[in-house]
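S2.1 Query sequence (Anti-anti-sigma factor)
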Amino acid sequence: MNCFRTIEEPSGLTFTTTQRPGGIRVITLVGDVDAATVHTLDEALAAGERLVADLTRVSFLSCAGVRSLLEANTRTELAVAVGGHAVTRSLEATGADRLLAVHRGTGAAVAALTPVPEPGREA
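Output structure tokens follow.
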């Protein structure tokens, strides 16, 4: 008799990208960010000058993920949307919450990025 059972849960990290007015690119991530999946986060954050990293559906954020966010923050205008306690705790424990523009929810993160007027339009 087997007294242990294995719970099969999907693992990994996926992302989708949406363009918003003002040149804002919203990257919505779903899953866990750890050493095995951080390359997906790096890929998601690789392009764009004005990014929102929507982490509201991320259930775990490792130090590798925090490092990826900090590196992206040095090369782009980045706003981070959080929703869950686990992600917020990782950012606070590492001090990254003081270096990143962290917002409660995606709407707040998008609003925080100042819109850039489109060519040919007056602000």
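The helical segments are 38-45, 63-75, 85-94, 106-112. The radius of gyration is 16 Å.
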